[in-house]
Structures are given as C-alpha cells and as structure tokens.
From TrEMBL:
Listed Gene3D superfamilies: lambda repressor-like DNA-binding domains (1.10.260.40)
Keywords: DNA-binding
Identification of the protein by name: Transcriptional regulator, XRE family
InterPro entries: Cro/C1-type_HTH, Lambda_DNA-bd_dom_sf, TransReg_Diox_bact_type
Length: 92
C-alpha cells in the first residue's frame, strides 16, 4: 500500500468542483469559530460568561464553538459586541 501525503490528497480531492465548494463552505464557519474562541480567550471569558453577556445559555456558545451549527447573523452580531468587536460581512 502506497502512502499519499496530505497535499497530494487535497489536490486530488480538489479536482472535484463539488468538493471545493463544500470545503469553502466549511472553511468560512471554521474561521468564524476560530476567531470567536480566540477573542473569548483574549478577554479571559468562559463560555458561560460570554453567554451571560448576550443573554443565552452556555450550551449555545459551546454549540457555536464546537458543533456543526449554523448561527444566525443576529446571534453572531451579539457575540461580536459581547467580545468588543464589530461583525462585518463582505462579499469578495
């Protein structure tokens, strides 16, 4: 059995337009989650403390950070403001 490295596998998979599209969809949410976690930690906030700031439950923040969860723009805006940030959405 021949081993294939990560870059080769990714290139092979990306030959499919459908795979590229799905990857891009997931990548957007991954980046959003990564930023939320980073800003929460920089502000020394627990998930519960962040949840309290926006009037929701800790489990909602956990789902946002960990699960395959598609939050509303309104919810993301509340999270951004609670973290001292402004939500910006751009089309490139």
């Amino acid at each position: 059995m021949e081993l294939i490295d990560h870059k080769e596998l990714k290139n092979e998979l990306f030959e499919s337009e459908k795979v590229k599209e799905e990857y891009e969809k997931l990548n957007v949410m991954y980046e959003i989650k990564k930023q939320i976690i980073r800003y929460r930690i920089e502000n020394n906030l627990t998930q519960k403390e962040l949840a309290d700031r926006i009037g929701t439950k800790q489990s909602a923040i956990s789902r946002l950070e960990n699960d395959d969860y598609n939050p509303s723009v309104e919810f993301l805006d509340k999270v951004a403001h609670a973290l001292g940030k402004k939500l910006e959405i751009r089309f490139n």
